[in-house]
Amino acid sequence: MRRILFLIITTLPMIALSQQSFERAVIETATGAYIVFTNDSNSMVIYLDTADIELMDTENNFFIQVDKKWTLQFFTLSFQNPNNNDLSNLDNQKSSLFQYMNYELEYIKNEIKMNIENEKVFWGPLGNKHFLLWHFDTPDLPAVQKQLYMTAICFNSFLNINVPLMNDQEYVDGVELLNRVGRNLVLHDHPIDIEEMYKKVNGS
Q1: CA-wise closest residue to 45 among 64, 26, 19
Q2: Got the DSSP string for 91-160?
Q3: pLDDT of residue 19
Q4: Model's pTM, two decimal places?
Q5: Which domains does the chain have, with CATH numbers?
């Protein structure tokens, strides 16, 4: 229970939009793990090269501890595109991601009533996708310096990757961790059978 409470305090899940339904799994390998999201139509796979990984799934929140010191949160949110914008166009992607980020920041300030400071945002390519990297200071959380997020549009969802930067951790290391995750994201236009993937990865 203490671990769950700690996670709730130190991570800031985005709850303003409805979560997209994906089956989720972590498939460990000899050198790291595959993080898998799949539904009836599509799938996303991230390979994370790490010596130590632990799944801490608390019902609706998907937490993964990496290298015994980082807590990554992964979550997907439904993306509405009422104007049917062409999302293969990077300007449209960027505009939609900025709108989403601003919506979430306002939600944190006005609904959660949390003070946030020093908001920063960066946009650019990483691996096979363009991501929005955004972060802010959290003075209301004594143990946490910043909340770091990377967000991309994947199929009809926002894929969010979050890591809280604790007081004893370095900003550049937190950003590099997010970069490690983001550059290994692979999208598939088909579902993945998690049991079959596990057998294939582990040679069984």
Answers
A1: 26
A2: HHHHHHHHHHHHHHHHHIIIII----EEEEEEEEEETTEEEEEEEEE-TT-TTEEEEEEEEEEETTEEEE
A3: 54
A4: 0.86
A5: 2-191 (3.40.1000.10)
